[in-house]
Design brief:
The protein is of the alpha/beta class. It contains 12 helices and 5 strands. A 5-stranded parallel beta sheet has the order 3-2-1-4-5, with helices on both faces.
């Protein structure tokens, strides 16, 4: 009798083991077949373009054109903070200029700077601002001072080529199908589409996405809404970006957002591939231990209280 009971027990254990293996296999098959949409921000997340543009062009142009008695190093530090480490990251340079001038003018008041702020505020409020309209003003006027900054920035940008890609971003794009075979990748760029496409192809990433959209297709939020109207609304969506514009776009459609933090891009992409995306595919992204406080601090900081 004892031997018989032992054999039955072993059989049951074997049956349970097979059932567990079958469930695990079925879950894996379902996971691999799961479709997911990844919408990726190009500038600053995949390519190190934001930091390069600001540090090589907009920042030195600001310190050179508008310091006016202030320490140029202080002006440079202020621009770096606003353009790369605040919710203004990724915004139009002229809007960053307006904020930088206002903050600088609080600690170092200037009649000329006040006049530039007033003109620039009005200029940005027009439906279609045109830099050529500034050229009609006399030399030394606020309009021409703004145009001087634009011209200096443009000349410095002309000396720069394509920004390098982040190595971990390239690894993610080339291997993401091993983690999520059903993933489809859309890319949004703030550059004209032809330039963005060429940049991705030159970086060896031309076959790593389904579609790429340039600035002529609207901002990030508009592009994301277009994607949802094109049949992607039934799939889980993960927005991968580095700016407040990308974060706000994800918020506007209820999509999950994964931040690529400035100066920690390589680490962020590595964690996304190895930990966060697998958890997202299982519907367990909330369990992935990722400290988002630094990014949220960037997004929610009161810029008007930034000091110099």
């Amino acid at each position: 009798m004892t031997r018989k009971r032992s054999r039955v027990s072993a059989s049951r254990v074997h049956s349970k083991s097979e059932q567990a293996a079958e469930k695990k296999s079925a879950a894996l098959t379902e996971l691999l077949a799961k479709r997911v949409l990844l919408v990726i921000e190009s500038e600053g997340a995949v390519f190190d373009s934001l930091a390069r543009k600001h540090e090589k062009a907009y920042l030195p142009a600001f310190a050179g054109c508008f310091s006016w008695g202030s320490d140029p190093a202080v002006c440079a530090s202020l621009w770096h903070r606003l353009a790369l480490r605040s919710r203004m990251r990724g915004q139009e340079p002229l809007r960053i200029l307006l904020s930088a001038l206002r903050i600088l003018n609080r600690s170092s008041p200037s009649v000329r700077r006040t006049a530039v702020i007033r003109v620039l505020d009005t200029y940005l409020a027009t439906p279609s601002p045109d830099p050529l309209s500034l050229a009609a003003s006399p030399k030394g006027s606020p309009e021409r001072l703004i145009l001087d900054w634009i011209s200096m920035s443009d000349s410095l940008l002309e000396e720069d080529g394509y920004a390098p890609r982040f190595g971990s971003a390239a690894l993610f794009l080339k291997t993401v199908k091993s983690v999520a075979p059903g993933a489809e990748i859309l890319v949004h760029s703030s550059c004209p589409e032809a330039i963005a496409l060429n940049q991705w192809e030159m970086a060896g990433l031309g076959d790593c996405f389904l579609r790429i959209a340039g600035s002529e297709r609207g901002d990030f939020a508009a592009y994301l809404r277009t994607a949802l109207k094109s049949g992607y609304d039934k799939e889980p969506i993960l927005v991968i970006g580095t700016t407040g514009l990308a974060w706000q776009a994800a918020q506007s459609v209820g999509a999950r957002f994964y931040p690529i933090m400035p100066e920690a891009e390589e680490e962020c992409w590595k964690y996304l591939l190895e930990d966060y995306l697998p958890a997202f595919m299982r519907g367990e992204s909330f369990m992935a231990k990722r400290d988002l406080r630094d990014f949220m601090r960037m997004m929610l900081e009161d810029i008007d209280r930034v000091g110099v």
